[in-house]
Amino acid sequence: MQIAIKANDLSKKYDSGFAVSHANFEVPLGTICGFVGPNGAGKTTTIRMLLGLITPTGGSATILGESINHPEKYLSQVGAMIEGPAFYPALSGEENLKVLATLGGFPIERVKELIKTVGLEGRGHSKYKTYSLGMKQRLGIAAALLPNPKLLVLDEPTNGLDPEGIQEVRDLLKKLAQNGTTVFVSSHLLSELELISEYLVMLRKGEVVFAGTMKELLLQQQPVILVKTENPADLVKVVEIAQAAGHSATIRSDVAHIEGPADWAGFLNRKAFESGIVLTELSPQLPNLEETFFEMTGDRS
Amino acid sequence: MIRVIAAEWRKLRRPTLFLGTLGAALFFTALTTTFLYLMIDSEQGNSDRGRQVGREVLGLASGSVYGFASVGGLLGIIALCVFAAQTAQEYTYGTLRNLLVRQPGRIRILIGKLIAMKIFALILVVIAAIVSISLSYFLSDHARVTTDLWFTSAGFTEIGKTLLNVSISVIYFGIVGMVLGLLLRSPISAISIGVLWLLIIENLIGAVKPVTLEWMPGNQLSTIAQGGSQNLDYSHALLLGSGYVILGAVIAAVLFSRRDVAN
Questions:
Q1: Residues A70 and A210 grouped into a single domain
Q2: Which residues of A touch B3 (CB under 8 A)?
Q3: pTM confidence score
Q4: Which ipTM did the prediction report?
């Protein structure tokens, strides 16, 4: 397995403490890897270290086989959008891309092509300051695609996009991965990441709490049965039934979350009926990234 | 390096910046040159700080560029503002991270930006020189100033010398602006501190204790533009001014190359 990103004990320590502490993870070449964590978990600091913008205080990392101490050796093959799009407000979208294309030595003709790819045709000549958040985001993605990258690093690429835009970005990332581009993408839209990512790196308080395939992560989690009752006060009785049967259960927002396999739902239904409880919803759920994320990071914000 | 210069030039050539800066430069050039000739007989003086410049001085071989040399300091302030804004805005817009991802050689970015801004400043200086010399020539009749020596070989030498001195001065002012931009990372702070120091604080200190002007950076750079002054020798100004600029540039370059880009 060829590796696009490899971090070995990568750390960044400030006076206030570790922003990233001994991070170890690998991202295989040609995959889409989600990069998740609560706000302040150290995602952007990690991305900045990988791109040579911040010097690590410990550990090491390689990008496309080159040490991050020599970003000039790999950045020509890397496209990135870090912490949202950043461009010159007085220049047009197209002119902003031309500045970066000129700087990176990429063909200027690629600018028009990318403007079209990200759905900004007709607005390329408008000044950046007149763009909506979604348009700015699209321009940021276009800038990241300028080098025809082997590795694409995107920090919250779907911020500000409407559902159609989110779907377009999802399709674009899938297409890029199919063509061999490695995509390393951080996002708060966990359901989106779940749809496209094969790999996942999860951070909490600067530490990697999981790095591996999405499948491995979800297999670590118990399936859940969601239960609603006609009378919300009966939820406590439902939880007691579950706990008596050896299943852990909690109540969140008038819904009982019971850890247990889907086929246990029938038993629960019978027991609830015998206790005079009317169930209005009994829904076995496979573990999803969102639940797993909350479970592992303890973050419900 | 060529790529960095070309990328920076794309930003500098935008009409609002280029024409706006050129307009400001030409306004001050025309104003200074016009006052020099139209107020030649005024008792309040016709040059900076109320100095009287007579027909005999303007009639010398260096007369054609007297107005241009006088405006050199103001052109320098304009350059300082442009260099400071162009440098510091990379931090405020967050665009520095894009530049460094595309060109990780930080010193290369810095030098490329500087060269592009120097080209920008030199274009302004040359246009200002042409406008000032032309205005001087047209107003010389009205002010009864003889221009016989202006376009002799000695006159052209003076034009060349003044063009060189003003260019050095303007570029030095610009580098001061760039250094302030890199250190303060905010266009407003860099420009206001630079202009406040050069136009107000230095003059206030100089008014209280005139001897200090011999060591003030802004005064050195303005004196370079004028090719020396009654109070300050040209070579002293050039040497000390170069020292200040080089020292500032080295400090800024070291900081820029080592500092984390965290915004």
A1: yes
A2: 102-105
A3: 0.80
A4: 0.82
